[in-house]
């Protein structure tokens, strides 16, 4: 940064703003919460402005901002430590819209820009890394997700290279322990014709309130969670049976649904609107982020109404 950019707030903001989305993704990986990631990205820019005179130009502006963002996240995690539940659930988990990921600069626009691979942003990865201690998590994200060198990671975290390499080994072992064993069988980010047909059946069955038709789309060992509510349901009969007990399929108890498709964390996500008994309007109800493997849905993570705003979705149809 030049001297005028250090003193003029408008020029400074324009300079750092181009890094907003990748810093937001970085904070999201660190925290697992989309709302907190937005707040911490803004906090990063505020800290950068206040400490602008400390930028000596030895490292790139991007690296300097990543240092500030990482430390801001570590500060939050130190003040508000959190642990997954005994079932391994991450109750503070929120999805990130794919539309936001599409706003990241390309490698042509920014040579060092992050290319977000599905395996480093999907919900299973996000859950797994939340089991790691914060600094170990930071090492894993910087080294494996962002591709930083050990020396640069060590400098950012004020650690020795040996300590970084040791932390990376522990992080990879912990990640492997908490990732689903069948993850390598999951579908790629690109949906094929069979995947789309499966999603259409899932949405159609939901709109019809047809529990049997929904069950046909699910793997026998499907897993269902709905953060921030506690609870892990495993098994097709258990999952669908729980929905039926809650009123699914009975328009006089719960009403009827309308569904549309979006994408979150590089995964398909079904947006559900519900029209209650006697009502005229379909209102925002939930977003189901789905994991597909071998022609069936193997994972459903359901998020409630507050996440609709992040996706730019209307509250009613």
Explain what the structure shows.
The chain is of the alpha+beta class and 317 residues long. The protein folds into 2 domains: 180 residues, Butyryl-CoA Dehydrogenase, subunit A, domain 3, CATH 1.20.140.160; 127 residues, Nuclear Transport Factor 2, Chain: A. Helices cover 45% and strands 17% of the residues. Strands 2-1-6-5-4-3 form a 6-stranded mixed beta sheet. A hairpin with a 2-residue loop joins strand 3 and strand 4. Helix 3 packs across helix 4 and helix 7 crosses helix 10. The longest helix is centred in the first third of the chain and has 19 residues. It is globular and about 65 Å long. It starts with a helix and ends in a 13-residue tail after the last strand.
Strand adjacency order, main sheet: 2-1-6-5-4-3
* Intertermini distance: 48 Å
Q: The biggest beta sheet, please?
A: 6 strands, mixed
Oligomer state equals single chain
What is the gist of this entry?
By secondary structure, the chain is an alpha+beta fold. The chain has helices at 3-7, 9-17, 20-31, 34-50, 61-79, 98-101, 123-129, 134-145, 150-157, 161-178, 193-208, 211-216, 236-245; strands spanning 218-226, 229-234, 256-264, 267-275, 283-293, 296-304.
């Amino acid at each position: 940064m030049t001297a005028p950019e250090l003193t003029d707030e408008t020029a400074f903001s324009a300079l750092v703003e181009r890094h907003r989305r990748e810093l937001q993704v970085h904070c999201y990986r660190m925290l697992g919460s989309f709302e907190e990631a937005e707040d911490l990205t803004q906090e990063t820019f505020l800290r950068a402005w206040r400490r602008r005179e400390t930028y000596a130009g030895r490292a790139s502006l991007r690296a300097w901002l990543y240092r500030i963002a990482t430390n801001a996240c570590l500060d939050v995690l130190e003040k508000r430590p959190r642990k997954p539940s005994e079932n391994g659930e991450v109750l503070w988990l929120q999805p990130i819209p794919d539309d936001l990921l599409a706003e990241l600069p390309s490698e042509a626009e920014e040579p060092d820009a992050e290319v977000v691979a599905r395996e480093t942003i999907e919900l299973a990865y996000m859950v797994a890394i939340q089991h790691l201690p914060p600094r170990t998590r930071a090492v894993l994200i910087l080294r494996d997700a962002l591709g930083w060198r050990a020396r640069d990671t060590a400098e950012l975290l004020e650690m020795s290279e040996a300590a970084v390499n040791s932390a990376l080994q522990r992080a990879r072992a912990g990640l492997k322990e908490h990732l689903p064993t069948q993850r390598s069988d999951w579908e790629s980010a690109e949906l094929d014709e069979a995947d789309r047909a499966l999603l259409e059946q899932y949405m159609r069955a939901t709109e019809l309130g047809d529990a049997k038709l929904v069950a046909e789309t699910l793997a026998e060992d499907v897993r269902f969670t709905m953060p921030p509510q506690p609870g892990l349901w495993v098994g097709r009969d258990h999952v669908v049976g729980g929905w039926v007990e809650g009123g699914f399929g009975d328009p006089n108890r719960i009403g009827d649904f309308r569904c549309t498709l979006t994408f979150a964390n590089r995964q398909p996500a079904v947006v559900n609107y519900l029209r209650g008994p006697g009502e005229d309007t379909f209102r925002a109800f939930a977003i189901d982020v789905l994991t597909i493997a071998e022609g069936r849905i193997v994972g459903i993570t359901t998020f409630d109404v507050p996440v609709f705003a992040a996706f730019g979705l209307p509250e009613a149809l």
